Amino acid sequence: MTILLADPAPTRAESAEPPADPPQAPAPPQAPEHPDHPDHAPAGRSLLAGTASWDRVADKAAKATSTAAGAIILVALAAVGVFLLAQGWPALRAGPDELPAKAESFWTLAGPLAFGSLWAATLALLIATPIAVGAALFITLYAPRKIRGLLAAAIDLLAAIPSVVYGLWGLMVFAPLVAKFYKPLSEHLGWIPLFAGKPSATGRTILTAALVLAVMILPIIASVSREVFRQTPPLEIEASLALGATRWEMIRMAVFPHARSGIVSGAMLGLGRALGETMAIAMVLSPTPFLMTFRLLESQNPNTVAAFVAQNFPEAHGTGVNALIGLGLILFVITFAVNWAARRVVAPKPT
Amino acid sequence: MTATALKTHSLSAYYGDFLAVADVSMTIDQRSITALIGPSGCGKSTFLRTLNRMHEVIPHARVTGEITLAGENLYDPGVDPVLVRQRIGMVFQRPNPFPTMSIRDNVLAGVKLQRSRLPRSEADDVVEQSLRSANLWIEVRDRLGKPGAGLSGGQQQRLCIARAIAVQPDILLMDEPCSALDPISTLAIEELMLELKSTYTVVIVTHNMQQAARVSDKTGFFNLAAVREPGRLVEYADTTTMFSKPKKKETADYIAGRFG
Fold it and tell me: Which of A105, A307, B30, B122 is the most buried (most CB within 10 A)?
């Protein structure tokens, strides 16, 4: 038994040695003195001798790399911005003959799509945030230790599902399922403008799309919330419990005040994803051109920017391509504005 | 003969399987100050936290034995720990006002938990009374709307005391309330404790033997037999007796500063 076990070990060590060697080669200049002999070190130490020369190099390299990384992000952002502006510009004055869907002008095309994107993303956010925050609370503060990790992993796994899978599932399973509920919903709650109109038989409505989006953005919001809940100062948790707070009162007194900005950032990350989501929407939603409506259950629905671009790109040519890129610019501006607004909300107020 | 506020009977506190404090039976007098002293890690803070069921807030922490408050066992299965904590308040080692709340809201935090509707005039009275009792009123009366985190450490600790007494508890537990404070703030808290004992029963854990000698009526000395052994109540008597002629050599050695 010992022999069997002992045999593979040296081979593994040998095979591991060659790749381990080269990185070690530059090491000697770091430590010219033998580290094994501590009495060498103080003798060789002088403030003027520049013993830290290797550290200096590493320090400079780290600074240069991180600066470069930061710069690359800015350059990439600028490059995308310039591309969108330059390529989208010609579409702004294009006529009905050149634009996709025979739109009268770029703005009659972009307006309803921008509305559709914002409406679907807002709905998704309104649905996902309470569920995500609730799940995060349950995981951090209520769940027994044993199922905590399991549940957290399950939620994170939702984020790992490709959006095309969400699209397929939404189209083939979820839409027919929820369609059954849309009919009674419109019968009983039809007096609410949101649920007015004839309900869609296929279920491929903006509400279905928003529900699918909600599932997709739930993990981001939940994991950010979980992280901020975990970081609640224990002193404040104890302070509230010692005053005779119940668990929920403790959450309101100690956990939420700290978590507010974190929850908002999580929600904004989710909103960003929801605004840009293309595939799932393109597959689930059954859109009507140029439509702007808040109604949730009808078979005629507004489309979203990203889905429209994806659906029309294969057949676009000439100025049509410019128009689609211009739509990309609109989405870029919307997302930017949303993020900026979120930062304003999260920033601590001056007291 | 003074009345009894709280009585423990063979109380042991565990963290998981680890026995931290073993078999403590002691009687705490009403409207007096009881000091718990002993070296670090002897379990005196753990014991204090069992008195208002704050010990069990830590995962896997549990308690065996009994604590009686006015004839009721705090650890009876039918007892709600939330109600226990409303009657037995606590002040912690580090001042912990709620940072997002104003001074006024901090004082009212506990009161609002018990009474959802509190008329403004009554709330004003509670705030003023509690802050006066905590000797903080004069310093903060002009800035009740400002955040509590803007106060000095000593003021924050008095704010926490005001918050604890605003709910009118029977007993006030203090876990090394002065260890994060400077000598002047410490003096202010000590004077406050002496005033509070006319209304409340105070139990204080302290590292500072002079503090125990200055403020307390009775003193309990906790110690460990050895490392990894549980903490025990070695000796418990009137403070004057404890500091002048303790019965046990262990107590005498600790008080004389020979260890700990």
Answer: A307
